[in-house]
Write a structure and sequence with these properties.
The chain is of the alpha+beta class and about 120 residues long. The chain has helices at about 5-15, 20-25, 45-60; strands spanning about 30-35, 45, 60-70, 70-75, 75-90, 95-105, 110-115. It has one domain (about 5-115): Nuclear Transport Factor 2, Chain: A (Roll), CATH 3.10.450.50. Helix content is about 30%, strand content about 45%.
Length: about 120
């Protein structure tokens, strides 16, 4: 799996199946970077750190439903829209949408940035 459309489709498929950690393990470069407004837009560097952050998130939420859009492509980038209905433990559930922009190099995702709607 090397093409950007293959990577985008695989990422969407894994996320729709709630296999977020598997998506990181399979599709991301070891030195991948994530910029997330939930982390004050401060970059999180390295695959290990991204996986640990995802595990912490999953340990504290209950996901009721998720829908990931088809990808839009531009050069080495693709974008997906995530729509999620979830609840943080001890809080009310909420709907949440974000646009996610990914950069691919050498057949792996090297960066992601999230924009919450």
């Amino acid at each position: 799996m090397n093409t950007i459309p293959e990577i985008a489709n695989r990422l969407a498929s894994l996320c729709n199946e709630l296999k977020f950690v598997e998506a990181y393990t399979e599709l991301y470069a070891d030195d991948a970077v994530s910029i997330d407004p939930n982390n004050k837009n401060e970059p999180i560097n390295g695959l290990h750190s991204l996986i640990e952050r995802e595990k912490q998130f999953l340990a504290n939420v209950e996901i009721h439903a998720i829908k990931v859009s088809d990808a839009i492509f531009a050069g080495n980038y693709f974008s997906l829209v995530f729509s999620m209905h979830f609840a943080i433990k001890g809080q009310e559930s909420k709907m949440f949408e974000e646009i996610c922009v990914y950069k691919v190099e050498n057949g792996k995702i090297v960066s992601q940035q999230f924009f919450i709607g």
